[in-house]
Amino acid sequence: MIGKTNGGGKDRLRPTIYGGTTPPSNPKNGDFYLYTGTAISGTELNGFMSGFPTWTMPEGFVYIGSGGTYSDSSYVNLINVRNGVHNFCPCCCYQVEGGKWYRKDAFVYRNGAWLKFSTWAQQWDGTLFYNGNQYTDITGGWTGANSYSPNLSATLYSGTITISTASAVDLSGFSTLKFMGSGNGANSGGAYSAKCKIFNESGGEVASLDFQNNGTYAVSVAALSGKHYVRFIAQGSRGNNLNISKVWLE
Questions:
Q1: pLDDT tens digit string along 73-91?
Q2: 208 Cβ contact partners less than 8 Å away, ≥ 6 residues apart
Q3: How far is the C-alpha of 235 from the C-alpha of 244, rounded, in Å?
Q4: Distance CA 143, CA 161 (A)
Q5: Could you read off the pLDDT of 99-127 as tens digits, one per residue?
Q6: Nearest to 40 by CA among 1, 90, 79
Q7: Between vectors from CA 8 to CA 7 and to CA 13, what angle results, nearest 5°?
Q8: How far apart are CA 158 and CA 127, in angstroms?
Q9: What's the CA gap between 140 and 120, in Å, rounded?
């Protein structure tokens, strides 16, 4: 065990929050344990936020958020704390390591057992596709490719290839969509550029960029906010291809 602390913060809960590579031997009902190699420097239990923290905190700081649904049938997910009764439904646990927030494997002790409520993950860095990872929780996956690993790739002799995010992606806060790859749409007159296009949720095209040779390309999205689809299109009658190795937002 590398440390423990009494939970506090905005919801005035007082369980003990343990950190280490093995659970504590004598927990009480409502205590937390997170699997970590970083000493806990402080904690916050927050009943109003369930996503990655956006603020800066010291190394080792732990944030536990709630987001479970209260009902009589799900009471095992609740911590009832005296001094008034506060129902806290843990759904996520984060810790600062190396200056970055990470979601941690974390558990709450209820009725003689450790119940897992949080699974390790890195904070999303804006990547939409890389090395076979489709970042499905953000993009909904990608559609229209013949192969999805290691690159998004497709070939078609005649017609239109469209490789697209399955879900609209929130572009708010980003200024540039970047991608690495190549594409061609060919007709009898030769090979022509493929296109990267961005569509809003109503189906309207709001940005477009031609590309052809293998390279790194950038599309400005600074004027866009809300959710949009990212699509790569190659169209022609004499051999079309797309080969995209990475897509990301900055």
A1: 444 445 554 444 567 778 8
A2: 195, 196, 197, 198, 219
A3: 16
A4: 10
A5: 989 999 999 888 889 989 889 888 889 99
A6: 1
A7: 80
A8: 31
A9: 20
